[in-house]
Amino acid sequence: MGICELKAKKGLIRVSSQQDKGKIKSISITGDFMVFPEDVIWEMEKGLIGIDVDEKNIREMVKKYLSNAKLMGSSIDDFVEVIICSLRGE
Questions:
Q1: Residue range 57-78: mean pLDDT, rounded
Q2: I need a labelling partner for 71 at 20 to 30 A (CA). Which of 8, 13, 59, 87 fits?
Q3: According to the model, what pLDDT value does residue 1 have?
């Protein structure tokens, strides 16, 4: 299991993930960051499972879920960076 943390401008983003055969098998995004609506993170986790472990695919999926969310003190790039970091930690 890969684990990575990123200190965003306001808050910590922590991602634990597993991959299998080049695809995301499981992912958990936690921390004290602020995103509204909050359930967008759970929806994004579900959407990431099964996609190829590829920065372009991950970035597109994160944008899909977070582009209409309100991020306070963190950015889409922060989430992409920490997700990719956790997947490289395998």
A1: 97
A2: 87
A3: 85
Domains of the chain, each with CATH number or no CATH:
2-88 (3.30.390.50)
Q: Rg (Cα) of the chain, in Å, rounded?
A: 12
In what order do the strands lie in the sheet containing 2-8? Answer: 2-8, 11-20, 23-31
3-state secondary structure the chain: CEEEEEEECCEEEEEEEEEECCEEEEEEEEECCEEECCHHHHHHHHHHCCCECCHHHHHHHHHHHHCCCEEECCCHHHHHHHHHHHHHCC
Reported pTM: 0.94
Q: How far is C-alpha 42 from the chain's CA centre?
A: 10
